[in-house]
Amino acid sequence: MTGKLLKFALAAATLAGVSACTSAPPPANVSGIMPSPYIAEGPVRTENGFLRGVASDQAPGITVFKGIPFAAPPVGDLRWEMPQPAADWDGVLEANTWGDSCVQNPAPQRFPVNSATDMSDSPGISEDCLYLNVWTPATTANTRLPVMVWLYGGAYNEGGGSSPFSHGDFLARQGVVVVTFNYRVGSLGFFAHPELTAEHGASGNQALGDSIAALQWVQDNITAFGGDPSRVTIFGESAGSAMNAALVGAPPAEGLFARAIAQSGTFQGLNIGTMVPRETAQQRTLTAAQENFGTTSLAELRALPAEEVHANLPGQGMIIDGHIIPEDLAKVFAEGRQLPVDVLVGSNEDEGSFTGIFGPPATLESWNQGAGFRWGDHVELGQAAYPVSTDAEAAVTATQPFGDNMTWLMRQYAEQQAALGVNAYHYYFRHDPPYDPDRGDLGAAHTGEIPYVFDNLCAPRTFPGGSSVELMCGNPEEEAFADQVSRYWVNFAATGNPNGGGLPNWPSVDELGPNEVMVLDGDGSGVSEWIGPLKAELYAAIYQDRVATPLGIE
């Protein structure tokens, strides 16, 4: 028996023991259907109707429920509305097929391939896309396991809850219920329009509304799958991490989750800056609509095919919409008015390595010419933090500010949560995974931590961190590191503390020195040096100029 299968067997035995002691009588008979007390046998009763899942084809003991509607299809007059309740259904819904992904660009319009749409088993693409998926190791509804809800990345323009890299089979085997869901992307998910604002007092951030609806579904239904609604952790990467952090500052999300894990992104996005106001986003919408469709009428825009809307109207990402995000979240967090939830946040050492593939390598001349654009009034600080004297040094250094800026933002996020008196942990992912010989080595790249978080090294990767599936799948060293990282995440979801089970000690952010961070690395995880005082001083100064001063943050 392999190490992973042995771990599965032990987990299954433990969960079976818990379930045997806590099994409850089945729910009341509804419409002549009598559910089994055992989740795997089904059907399971939700507020909208009965579901039957399927056995995982990857991890013994896991039941998977695919394509569960958590909101009404956002089509017709519901296009650009906040999600409405899902309709009830009669009989038993066989939850064995992924719901369609939201409208986005598949290959060849998207290069490289889109992991949400271009795999051999990818679902279709449609505007009717508000579906979620559940992986559970529980045998009965009374198991009360922690719940982890994933928000995918994709620059606010792509992604899906059925993407293979985020399948929850192996993570669920560690004793959590895993939920993934689709949210609207591009101009169908981030759309501000004055007619919507006049009707609702707000517009934009429909994707955040989808996220809140999915989390409300979890609160209403997850006990039926063996989950504990009081121990819900949201986790996400890149755009999903930014949305995740925004939900921590969103009043309508209060009470829907207890913890948040943010991987490479905060409410500011991936770079230091203020949030876009609704009025600016509305004007961009009207300008593009008039130029591309000859109309700004909401009704006429709703009548257009969704694919044309996606292609010709700008998807603007998160904005200050006036409801979910009433004001710039930098001010909310600085003043301690965000939700007091535990957080585990961080980023990767080589986040910006993929930027080197766009255009020619930086030279000493081009690096120096861009100093004012990068550093504003802090060119001297920037040059001290990033000393460059040759073309070769410039080519290497040019990709570093992207990641250094991001890790500074993540540290600020952790410290702002810690100031509320909740648990807060900061990591720096330094592990360099193997890459195929014909592919450039991007190091600890953007998205590179995801296979380890999901303990899912054999799944296709998502852009840009395209580490080698062949060299990692079944590799004992890589599997051991994936086990470590995923156990940190699961421990945090269960208790608000990543430590336990013999893992290297992870201090809270309050216990770290100003240039210390928790490094995650297959060669040895533990507290180590962070980015250095000169870089920290530089990004603090840029934040003051670009965010704090304009917003009046003390």
UniProtKB/TrEMBL annotation:
Q: Which residues form the signal peptide?
A: 1-24
Q: What class of enzyme is it?
A: hydrolase
Among Pfam families, the record links this protein to: COesterase
Q: Any idea of its EC number? A: 3.1.1.-
Which keywords does this chain's UniProt record carry? Hydrolase, Signal
Q: Record's Gene3D superfamilies?
A: alpha/beta hydrolase
Q: Domain named Carboxylesterase type B: which ranges?
A: 44-358, 410-517
- Superkingdom classification of source: Bacteria
Spell out the family assignment given in the record's similarity comment: Belongs to the type-B carboxylesterase/lipase family.
> Would you tell me the protein name for this molecule?
Carboxylic ester hydrolase
Source species of the chain: Aurantiacibacter gilvus
